[in-house]
Design goal:
about 80 residues, about 0% strand
């Protein structure tokens, strides 16, 4: 069964563009509401690993990198896959 945040992130991904990363905004909203950054990072990492489109991977990877800077996560997403 998919994580409850997965659908939210996939919808944000579809609406994201080069100027606005809505995945990152959704992740930051969830963290602000009190959800664990580790949980959000894990969901985004799993999404990034399963995406096909280069654009989708780029948006998710950018969000992961930004969250990594904010919460000191190690970047475990390989952009070259």
């Amino acid at each position: 069964m998919a994580h409850p945040f997965e659908k939210m992130f996939l919808l944000a991904l579809k609406k994201s563009n080069e100027e606005e990363n809505l995945v990152l905004k959704e992740a930051e909203k969830l963290i602000h509401k009190g959800y664990a950054p580790n949980e959000i990072h894990d969901v985004l990492s799993k999404l990034a690993a399963g995406l096909i489109s280069d654009k989708e991977v780029e948006v998710i990877t950018d969000a992961l990198e930004e969250l990594g800077e904010q919460f000191d996560f190690e970047d475990d997403v390989d952009e070259e896959e």
